[in-house]
Write a structure and sequence with these properties.
The complex is a heterodimer of chains A (299) and B (290). Chain A has 13 helices and 2 strands. Chain A is mostly helical. Chain A has a single domain, classed as MetI-like (MetI-like fold, Orthogonal Bundle). A two-stranded antiparallel ribbon of chain A has the order 1-2. The longest helix of chain A is centred in the first third of the chain and has 45 residues. Chain A starts with a helix and ends in a 9-residue tail after the last helix. Helices cover 72% and strands 0% of the residues of chain B. In chain B, helix 10 packs antiparallel against helix 11 and helix 12 runs antiparallel to helix 14. Chain B has 2 domains: 49 residues, no CATH class; 205 residues, MetI-like fold. Chain B starts with a helix and ends in a 6-residue tail after the last helix. The chains are: A mainly alpha (299), B mainly alpha (290).
Chain lengths: 299, 290
């Protein structure tokens, strides 16, 4: 009996394995061609002297010179570190705001779908040509009307806080926070949408149980909604970190592009690879901290 | 007797919020929503502004003498292109459509395997996350080299193929499929369904909200991208590049560029509205019971 079971299990596993690989193959090939090869090529280039001949690239191994140049001489390390710290702060803000908005937008009230479209506008607008047109025009306006843009620099807010006798440091924090609310809202479109999808996937019967047992809204949130949202919180943390750390407007990305556009491929590759390793380390730490705390309903 | 009491209970659960609470939520949403809508509204209004109002100092938010000149100019500029404008539209729709659908199918298949199969190569999922964060700008050069070697330059495939194994979709789909009870899949397997059949008739319908959301991301991602250096043939270029060429002609075309950017935003918005409406529908009868 036992033996037979084992045999059955083996063939089942083998069958599963075969189908699994068939399902995976297209993606594996794609990743190998469009990610793995370019990635290793980039890493290789970062250790090389890169020059060009007609129709081909000549790369000669030259050690870690490019890394030394970029990270220490050009202070890319400091730049990258600063941006990663900003990334973490922004990720926290984005998470809080997007959970909050998703819960509101998930409730039933008048004009809900219209509100959803409004708060998802960043997804549709925040990339490509549309954004560059906005930015171009807005900076143009700013350069023409440098006086009128000062209204938005929170001088009124600063003065108000000063008159209340609050210290300089706190004022700085508050003012920065207010002016970055807009930035953060524009970063959280995807996250809001993911949280709404997550909230929709919580079974209504769990809420019915809460009602029957007489739980308060506060308990309902912390005992049902929040634990079942943890997979989406994790998903959104990873997404936000990657999204914010590789924003094309960040100075780090600008530096990498600068080297690339000026045909300094070794430097560009070194900066890119190093920065990539830093993000990877950050993600590793976060995954290690959080992976035990995610609640899956299946297990 | 039972029916009315049930109704009351449901009404209570949703309608327990006070009028003040509802007003508060509305005000809050309106305040935050203003930040979202104002730039867009500004673009809409600007595309109706005549040139002297666009450069007026101090700038006004609203238009005084609305004109359709910008939109007319966009169309006349578009009509005078060397390649017919409809060709760019076709290219963009074709490339975005094929790439989005292909990406969703590939990503879902892989996510299914990574989430529900016991394979030895499960560690490869870590590679996915890794691929997710390596930024495109560093990979351009090697990607160009490999695409040249494969003869993908100057073809639609040059646009489509690199999009298909994008890892964002796989990552998203896997997170959603992890939520799916394994029992559901096992029970279908016991009833004799093949894996392909489980995938098409059980997994995909159940995670419809997930791939409907992915549809929005993937489509806007491809639609808004303007890959340079892959395709040189003007016949095969995308709408984005056509409009940015029209726009690039100088600051005198600010109004035209506003009109163009609005024109480009229409398809993603339509896709978004359609997909999100169906997300709400599917959750109502997703067939999952705990």
């Amino acid at each position: 009996m036992n033996n037979k079971n084992k045999l059955l299990k083996l063939s089942y596993e083998r069958r599963q394995g075969l189908v699994g690989y068939v399902f995976l193959i297209p993606w594996l090939i794609g990743t190998a061609v469009f990610f793995c090869y370019p990635f290793f090529h980039t890493v290789w280039l970062s250790f090389c002297d890169v020059s060009f001949d007609t129709g081909r690239i000549i790369s000669k191994f030259s050690g870690i010179g490019a890394y030394k140049f970029v990270f220490i001489q050009q202070q890319f390390l400091q730049q990258a570190w600063t941006h990663l710290v900003t990334t973490c702060l922004h990720t926290a803000c984005v998470l809080i705001i997007s959970i909050f908005l998703a819960i509101i937008l998930n409730q039933e009230f008048f004009g809900r779908s219209a509100w959803r479209v409004i708060f998802s506008l960043p997804i549709i607008v925040a990339s490509g040509l549309v954004l560059s047109v906005f930015q171009k025009d807005l900076t143009f306006q700013a350069s023409v009307t440098s006086e009128s843009t000062n209204i938005f620099q929170n001088e009124a807010l600063t003065e108000m806080l000063l008159s209340m006798g609050i210290g300089d440091k706190i004022i700085n924090v508050v003012v920065t926070a207010v002016s970055s609310v807009v930035d953060i809202l524009w970063m959280s479109g995807v996250q809001i949408l993911l949280f709404i999808t997550g909230l929709q996937s919580i079974s209504p019967s769990l809420y019915e149980v809460c009602d029957v047992e007489g739980a308060t809204a506060w308990q309902r949130f912390w005992k049902v909604t929040f634990p079942l949202l943890t997979p989406y919180i994790f998903l959104n943390i990873v997404y936000s970190i990657i999204d914010i750390s590789t924003q094309s407007t960040a100075s780090v990305m600008y530096t990498i592009r600068y080297y690339y556009n000026n045909v300094m491929y070794a430097n560009s590759s070194a900066a890119g690879t190093g920065y990539f390793l830093m993000i990877l380390a950050l993600l590793g730490i976060i995954t290690a901290l959080l992976s035990k705390r995610i609640v899956y309903i299946d297990k | 007797m039972i029916l009315p009491s049930l109704k009351i209970k449901k009404k209570n659960r949703r309608g327990s919020r006070s009028l003040a609470g509802t007003t508060g939520i509305f005000l809050f949403l309106a305040l935050l929503g203003a930040f979202m809508v104002l730039p867009l509204l500004y673009a809409v209004i600007s595309s109706f502004k005549p040139i002297d109002e666009l450069y007026a100092y101090p700038p006004r938010f609203f238009v005084r003498r609305p004109t359709t000149e910008n939109i007319k100019m966009l169309f006349s500029l578009a009509a005078n292109l060397w390649v017919p404008f409809s060709r760019y539209v076709f290219n963009s729709v074709f490339v975005s459509g094929v790439a989005t659908v292909g990406h969703i199918i590939l990503a879902s298949m892989c996510a299914f395997v990574f989430s529900k199969f016991n394979l030895r190569i499960k560690w490869m999922f870590k590679l996915v996350v890794t691929a997710l964060l390596f930024n495109g700008s560093v990979l351009w050069l090697p990607q160009y080299v490999i695409m040249a070697k494969m003869g993908l330059l100057n073809t639609y495939w040059g646009y489509i193929l690199p999009v298909l194994p994008m890892s964002l979709g796989l990552f998203l789909m896997k997170q959603f499929m992890d939520q799916l009870p394994t029992a559901l899949i096992e029970s279908a397997g016991i009833d004799g369904a093949s894996y392909f059949r489980i995938f098409t008739t059980i997994v995909m319908p159940t995670v419809k909200p997930a791939w409907m959301t992915l549809l929005v991301f993937a489509f806007q991602n491809v639609w808004n991208s303007n890959p340079h250096g892959v395709v040189f043939d003007e016949q095969l270029k995308l709408l984005q590049s056509a409009i940015s060429e029209i726009v690039a002609a100088g600051i005198a075309r600010v109004g035209v560029s506003m009109a163009g950017s609005l024109f480009i935003m229409i398809p993603p918005i339509v896709i978004f509205v359609v997909s999100q409406n169906s997300v709400i529908e599917t959750m109502a009868h997703s067939g999952l019971k705990d």
